[in-house]
Amino acid sequence: MDFELDIRRRRGKIIPQKKTLSLQVKRSISLLIGTLLFLTVLISIVYLLNTTQSNQKGYVLQQEQLKKDDLLLQDRDLVNEIIDAQSYNKIEDSNLVQDMIKPENPIYVDPPPPSEEEA
Questions:
Q1: Where are the domains of the chain?
Q2: Where residue 9 falls among pLDDT bands split at 50, 70, 90?
Q3: C-alpha R_g of the chain
Q4: Distance of CA 85 to the CA centre of its chain
Q5: How many CA atoms does the CB half-sphere of 15 hold within 13 Å?
């Protein structure tokens, strides 16, 4: 047998030198610790990415709600301006209406009475 290669030949097959149990246990423990550290880092990165993305969406949502509130306030102001412009007193007080000639003998026409079919 060749002791320099640390390989045993048995029935024509090459079999590596057997390792001690304590060496296999140490190697398994180190692989387990490495795997756990890798998974912990990976899970932490995924968690941080999801949290950041959620916070960004929350910020965008808040900004859009502020824009909506501003637009609703602007809409309310415009509606009030329209109502004020259409008010009867304002129309009566306008110079355009004051310059109009008032009719001397106004004739008012009543609508015809409803027919039996409409009633």
A1: 19-95
A2: low
A3: 46
A4: 40
A5: 10
